[in-house]
Amino acid sequence: MFSGSGLLPGGDTLADCTLRTTDGAQFRAHRAFLCTTSPYFQALFGEDYGAPRNVLVAGVKGAALDVLLTFEYTDQLCVNKDTVLDVLEAADMLLLDAAREQCLDLLLRSMCPENCLFLGTLTRRYYCPKFTEAVMRYAHRNFEEVWQRSETFGETPVWLLYDLLASPELNVERETSVLEVIARWFSTASAEQRSKLLELLRCVRIGRCKMDSTPTTLLSLHPL
User: Fold this and answer.
1) Beta bridge partners of 20
2) Topology given in CATH for the domain delimited by 111-218
3) 2 CB-near residues (< 8 Å, 6+ apart)
4) CA distance 30 to 44
5) CATH number for region 1-110
6) pLDDT tens figures, 167-205
7) Which of 21, 42, 145, 191 could hold 113 in an S-S bridge, CB 3.0 to 4.6 Å?
8) Reported confidence tier of residue 218, pLDDT bands at 50, 70, 90
């Protein structure tokens, strides 16, 4: 467990605030130091706001705040595949850019066909051009494996599927593979999502399709 009072010279003499989370965690820390770490803490502990000493950090889990405070004091980020998403969300909320970037780097190192589409959904939640470029490049190059082995294909948002299918960088051996992807997506899509079917079909280069191999699932769709 993090203990800010033991990480700076002066110990408890310099620890002048307590950060609390809704799940009951409490952390002693140093307002002056925290103000150097992010605009969030600068605003929180600025003189214009009365520089509070006991603060509830809403929306952040205690375990995630523990990791982030330890990182800011020691430059050591202790995360794994089970905790990285909580820490990433907290780092983004608290505007702790260095920790946020390290979390995204960890996700990239763990990228595979099974989780690529899930990582793709994060590209709009967390702005990071390097992360977005790496995820989309991997998805384009390995698209056949990605859509067939994805653990979250049924949850893929329309915007992400469209961005992938419409890209000239998409690597598919047969254009009918694009139809197969759309057919599979349609079979699990909500009524609201299904209204976007025509938009997705515009991504298909019909002239390159062999109609005798077009998936019967797609041919049976009412809009066709």
Assistant:
1) 26, 56
2) 1.25.40
3) 27, 65, 66, 69, 70, 73
4) 12
5) 3.30.710.10
6) 999 998 888 888 889 989 988 888 888 888 889 988 887
7) 145
8) low
